[in-house]
Structure formats: C-alpha cells, structure tokens
Amino acid sequence: MKYVSTRGDAPTLGFADVLLAGLATDGGLYVPASWPVLSPETIRGFAGRPYADVAYEVLKPFVGDEIAPTALRAMIHEAYATFRHPAVAPLVQIDDRHFVLELFHGPTLAFKDVAMQLLSRLMDHVLRERSRRATIVGATSGDTGGAAIAAFGGSERCDVFILFPKDRVSPVQQRQMTTFGSASVHPIAVEGTFDDCQAIVKAMFNDASFRAETALSGVNSINWARIMAQIVYYFTSAATLGAPDRPVSFTVPTGNFGDVFAGYAAKRMGLPIERLIIATNENDILERTMRTGRYEMNGVQATMSPSMDIEISSNFERLLFEAGGRDADNVVRMMQTLQQSRAFTVPPEAIEMIRAEFDAGRTDEAATADVIRRTLESTSYLLDPHTAVGVGVAEARLGLEPMITLGTAHPAKFPASVEKACGIHPPLPTNHTDLMERPEQFETVANDVAHVQDFIRSRSRAVRLGAAA
Ligand SMILES: Cc1ncc(COP(=O)(O)O)c(C=O)c1O
Ligand SMILES: N[C@@H](CCOP(=O)(O)O)C(=O)O
Fold first, then answer.
1. Which value does ipTM take for this structure?
2. Which of 26, 258, 293, 345 could hold 351 in an S-S bridge, CB 3.0 to 4.6 Å?
3. pLDDT of residue 433
4. Which residues does UniProt call coiled coil (predicted)?
C-alpha cells in the first residue's frame, strides 16, 4: 500500500515511512492511494471473533509487506492485552435500538488508547529495525496526551513532548500526563487553546531543519496509523449487530474529525453504514459547515466536553480531499484561505458529496447535562460528557436500524461535570486511585513556536545523542 498527501506535493510513501512522518512535508495529511475492500463474507466472519484477530484482518492491507505478518499479529495482540475488558470494545444497549460502543477500557480511560497502544508498538518496531531514535510531539485537548504518554512513556527510542492548553483540561486528564514520572516524558502547558497547541505542532513539522534535527514524529490523528487503528471497532461492532446483512448507523462525538473519518474509511472498505453522524458540542463548526457549506471559525468556548473544544478540525482536510475527487490543488487553496481569513467555502460538488455521506448535529451544554441525567434515570448507565454529546445527537435521529454511539471516555475522567449533571461522583477504576496524590511535573510555556522548539531541543535524546541509535 502506498500513501499520498492531501496537498499533492510530498513524496508518495509506504506504510513505515508514513508512520514515522506524521504530517507530510507539504503540510498535508497522508491517505491510502486506494481503499482496500473487504468482502461481505469476510465482514460476516468477524462476528464473535476476538478483537485482535479482526484488527489483524482489517489492518493487514494498510501495512502491506512492510511489517512481517507474525510481528504485526504479535504487536496487535500485545496492544489489546492492555485493555481491562476481554472484548476490548464492548457494546452496551441503552435503548431499544441504541447502543454505546465502550472504547474506554484501555490504560487511560479514553478511546485514544485503542490506536495509541498499537502505534507505540509499531513505531518502536520500525525504529528498532532502522536503528533510529525519534522525538514524538503531540497536541492534546486532554485525552491524546495521556494516551500517548502511557503508550510511549517506557520507549527506549522515543522522547515524548505533549502540548496541552493550560487550565483547559480536566484534573484527571492533566494528571495522567503530569504524574507519569519518566525522564523521557515532557508535558507542556501552553498559554492558549488546543488549536494553538496543534498549530505549534504543525509549525514544527513544517520547519524542515527542526524536523530533521529532532527526528520528529507525530502521534495526533494527523498520523495515518492513528486513523487506521480506529477503523477496526466500526467493523467489530457492526458485525456483532449483524453486518453486512443488517446495516447499522454510527454517531460519533467529534473534535479533530479523526474518529468519524475512521468510520468513513470503514464504509469505503465495504462496511454497510446506513448513516454516519457527526456530533459536536457548542464548538459546532462542523455542524455549521454541513448546514451552510462554509467552514467559518468564530472562537472556541470551554465546555464540559473539553476534548472536543476544537475549531481547526485537522482530519476534515482528509474528507475534503476525498469529496473533491482527490484534487490536491483545491485542498491547498481551501487551507490557504482558512489561514488567511479564518474561513473557506466548500465547493458545491464537495459539500453535496459530504452531505450524502454524513449527517450532523450538536448538543449544547444544558442538553448534554440533561442527557447524562436522563440516561442514568432510564437505564442506570452513566455517560461521560463527550459520549453524552453523541447520545444527545443520536436520540433525535434514531431510525429502524441499530444506532451505535461511540463511547469515547470513561465518566470518571470528568467527575465534576458528571456530578453536577446527575449527582453521582464517578470513582476512578481501582488501578488509577492514587492518580490525584502523585506529584505533578510539567513545563509552562508561552503560545510561541520558538519557545517550544527551544525546550524540545534542550531535552530530546535524538538531538543530544543523534537520531541514529
Ligand atoms: C473523549 C473524546 N471524545 C471525542 C473526541 C473527538 O474525537 P476526534 O478528535 O477524533 O473527532 C475526543 C478527542 O478529540 C475525545 O478525547
Ligand atoms: N481530543 C483530542 C484532540 C487531539 O485529537 P487527535 O485525535 O488528533 O490526537 C485530545 O483529547 O487530545
């Protein structure tokens, strides 16, 4: 499998290079040159099989022959052995035809673990084969950071630098990043929003000499391997409910558009998805874009679902590329216009295609709290605020087919908001109970690329010892 950039001016790469590259050198995002398709028989055969076995079948065509099958299989099995639930991503029924897909049974209690546990193993494998080190950078609105630190914290070959927006993540999310206690882990509080953190990360990737000097790699969903690993649970959950013979719909709490793009990828691979629904909180730029055809920034507000407080939704670029017939020049124009004027218009044919593939809705703060309270009353099931945004959007769109809302985080990551909504203070699972007592360690930096680069240069082993290991 080869990969091409959405901006059309970066080299075409194989899987291992895409894995290490993160962002393409032209500032674009890598996508597969073509979509592999799984037959209905293959999809039917996924029902009842262990998660790791299905993951191997789904991921194999994307990896190609760049990683030996036995090694790939072993890494997948190891990654999902870290999950507390034997099914890895179980379905829970909350209404007649409505299910929550629990994606939060990994080490940091959010769906990011599903991809990150595999990503760290894949990267270590490729770095070991190439005798290389890497400097990993990531921007987080709360969950990606903790998941990356848990997955890469023990790596011999990687140092991890995670930028998070100061005072805009929950205390549990912050402590998952700041109490890890390893010399190779560097949480950085940035005086700004998640979008500022993400802009700094992208600027560092676009600085060719810094990128080379630090052997920079990325773990955000700009990295194709993140999306790839997230495709798997669309297949496992749909097959459990009868796919391909019974189509299902998905509602996806959305911020950076990675998770819902993984659903789109599953559909391109042959999974019959009736409707794919984008759910936003009050930071509703994607819902507005769907309605108006204009992507228009108007400032990020802090909500009780902080991980979705995002306005520059990186993976929407991948969808624009697909919807515009893979016209990279058009993507470049839209991204330049966005940078200059904080808005762009999606071409009419592209928005038409997007509307044919996706639906969208928003759940405001009051409605999110109401969903948490009502769901607890009707089913004794406790939702986290991000999942509640999804459930709120899904409830208004239930049809005859099963609806799966992605359960993206454990409620205990957001105890204050959950308690305010329904009076219950969700306890952390027992293996996390000392989290709030451990000492914190992090750096606070200005919202400035040069400051962050100086900090990384001073701490990265790839800089100090060289990228060759
Ligand atoms: C708990 C949670 N839910 C939903 C999302 C949205 O996912 P995505 O950014 O892939 O759209 C995120 C992070 O972005 C998250 O951390
Ligand atoms: N919600 C995310 C934001 C970053 O998203 P990513 O999927 O691109 O890593 C977070 O929790 O950090």
1. 0.99
2. 293
3. 84
4. none
User: Same structural domain for residues 300 and 417?
Assistant: yes
Q: Which of 2, 112, 166, 202 is catalytic?
A: 112
In a domain? residue 297: yes
Same domain, 256 and 321: yes
Query: What residues are paired with 190 via a beta bridge?
Result: 165, 445
- pLDDT over threshold 90, residue 147: yes
* Average pLDDT along the chain: 97
Exposed/middle/buried for residue 3 (C-beta within 10 Å: 0-12, 13-18, 19+): buried
Task: Assess contact for 160 and 149: CB atoms under 8 A.
Answer: yes
Q: Starting at the edge strand that comes first in sequence, how are the strands of the sheet with 443-445 ordered?
A: 216-218, 134-139, 158-165, 185-190, 443-445
Beta-carbon neighbour count of residue 423 at 10 Å? 9
Overall domain count for the chain: 2
Mean pLDDT of 33-42: 98
Mean pLDDT of 139-154: 97
Residue 192 has pLDDT above 90, yes or no: yes
Same domain, 261 and 401: yes
The model carries a pTM of 0.98
Q: Is 283 in the pocket of ligand 2 (CB under 6 A)?
A: no
Ligand 1 pocket, residues with Cβ under 6 angstroms: 110, 142-143, 221, 253-260, 307-308, 386, 408-409
Which one of 254, 281, 315 would you pick to mutate in the ligand 1 pocket, going by the greatest count of ligand atoms within 8 A of its CB? Answer: 254
Looking at residue 469, its pLDDT comes to 84
User: Domain of 172: which CATH number?
Assistant: 3.40.50.1100
* Same-domain status, 417 and 282: yes
Q: Which residues contact 340 (CB under 8 A, 6 or more apart)?
A: none
Angle at 144 between CA 87 and CA 168, to 5 degrees: 125
Beta carbons of 51 and 88 less than 8 angstroms apart: yes
Asked whether residue 254 falls in the same domain as residue 353, the answer is: yes
Pocket test for ligand 2, best of 116, 202, 221 (most atoms within 8 A of CB): 221
Residues 226-247 pLDDT 10s: 999 999 999 999 999 999 999 9
Amino acid in the structure at residue 111: F
Residues 415, 336 within the same domain? yes
Name the strand (E) or helix (H) holding 285. Answer: helix 285-292
Ligand sitting nearest the alpha carbon of 195 = 2
- Is 14 within the bounds of a domain? no
Answer whether residue 200 is part of any domain. Answer: yes
Instruction: Classify residue 349: in a domain, yes or no.
Output: yes
Burial of 370 (0-12, 13-18, 19+ CB in 10 A): middle
Q: Are residues 154 and 273 in the same domain?
A: no
Domain of 319 in residue numbering reads as 91-109+225-422
362-398: per-residue pLDDT in tens?
Answer: 999 999 999 999 999 999 999 999 999 999 999 999 9
